[in-house]
Write a sequence for this structure.
């Protein structure tokens, strides 16, 4: 009992430290930025994911599953908008060059949101990239593309598992329908939990430029998944009751997608902060990879540059002040000479008047 109480206190302390660090890193602005990028990356991201999973299950089946999942999160209107995005983002196969350029733009667009998410993760770990060379930019895009492929793989796994569960439900329904529905419902929830947790663990492991063990990411990914599922219910309830997109008319589906990505990013950032605090608590060895360094080094360098800039500005101000002081001194000397001249005139006139009388 004492051990459980101690672990609970540690967990609460980690949550508290995570919140303070999360709030200090301004997650609101970063989430808004990523939501903006996600809006433009979403068509490309969806078309690649649908292409990967659709190769095995068929494009229509995958589109239907995405529409169903998105509909549960943010409503039917937004899910229809996503379905239209997938349909309109299809590659033009009229020519080979159109396919090549279209595929290149798809990859660039689909990886944009993960590129921004990577920068946010580096900020959470207080890591900064040493220098953005062409090689490193390509590697970052490849990593981001890998995250897109992971999404496609997880969707594929989800479809396989859903097919198996549906087959089991149909087979066992005649034997024990009530128990079958309950048990398979729990199994479906656990499998969904595992898939989502795997995605978050992959984000925490691969996106930041740090050398991190998988075991360090599991607790943070688990907490993020719990918060994500709770937020899924709350956001769905909020959207259903208040209908925040109704104010925006025809743009309501876009607004709902932005809000969904925004709230999801807030949760992901909190989970990443918790992972950092957990690594500190466990004293895990976490260090930047060869392309990054502690952000404090670059901050000190910027402060040193700023110091040099301030010194130069002070020198200029001192020079201008010296010119001003010199002009003031010359003006004062001229006034003194003029005053002395006037005094001599007055004395001379007084002496002349005295001699006259």
């Amino acid at each position: 009992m004492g051990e459980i109480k101690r672990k609970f206190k540690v967990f609460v302390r980690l949550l508290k430290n995570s919140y303070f660090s999360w709030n200090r890193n301004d997650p609101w602005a970063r989430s808004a930025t990523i939501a903006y990028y996600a809006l433009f990356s979403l068509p490309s991201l969806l078309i690649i994911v649908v292409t990967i999973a659709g190769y095995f299950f068929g494009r229509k089946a995958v589109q239907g599953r995405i529409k169903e999942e998105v509909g549960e999160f943010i409503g039917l209107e937004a899910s229809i908008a996503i379905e239209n995005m997938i349909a309109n983002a299809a590659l033009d196969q009229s020519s080979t060059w159109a396919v090549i350029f279209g595929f290149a733009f798809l990859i660039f667009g689909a990886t944009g949101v993960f590129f921004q998410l990577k920068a946010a993760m580096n900020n959470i770990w207080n890591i900064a990239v040493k220098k953005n060379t062409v090689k490193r930019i390509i590697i970052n895009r490849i990593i981001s593309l890998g995250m897109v492929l992971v999404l496609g793989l997880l969707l594929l796994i989800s479809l396989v598992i859903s097919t198996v569960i549906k087959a089991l439900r149909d087979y066992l329904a005649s034997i024990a329908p009530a128990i079958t529905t309950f048990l398979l419902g729990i199994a479906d929830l656990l499998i969904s939990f595992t898939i989502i947790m795997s995605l978050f663990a992959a984000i925490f492991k691969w996106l930041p430029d740090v050398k991190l063990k998988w075991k360090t990411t599991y607790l943070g990914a688990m907490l993020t998944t719990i918060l994500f599922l709770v937020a899924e219910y709350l956001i769905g309830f909020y959207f259903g009751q208040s209908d925040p997109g109704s104010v925006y008319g025809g743009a309501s589906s876009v607004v709902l997608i932005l809000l969904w990505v925004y709230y999801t990013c807030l949760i992901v950032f909190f989970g990443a902060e918790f992972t950092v605090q957990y690594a500190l608590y466990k004293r895990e060895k976490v260090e930047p990879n060869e392309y990054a360094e502690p952000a404090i080094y670059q901050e000190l360098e910027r402060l040193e540059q700023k110091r040099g800039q301030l010194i130069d500005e002070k020198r200029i101000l001192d020079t201008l002040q010296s010119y001003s002081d010199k002009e003031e001194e010359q003006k004062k000397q001229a006034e003194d000479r003029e005053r002395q001249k006037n005094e001599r005139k007055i004395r001379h006139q007084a002496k002349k008047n005295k001699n006259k009388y």
Summary: The longest strand covers residues 127-129. Strands lie at 127-129, 210-211, 287-288, 292-294. DSSP finds ten helices and four strands in the chain.
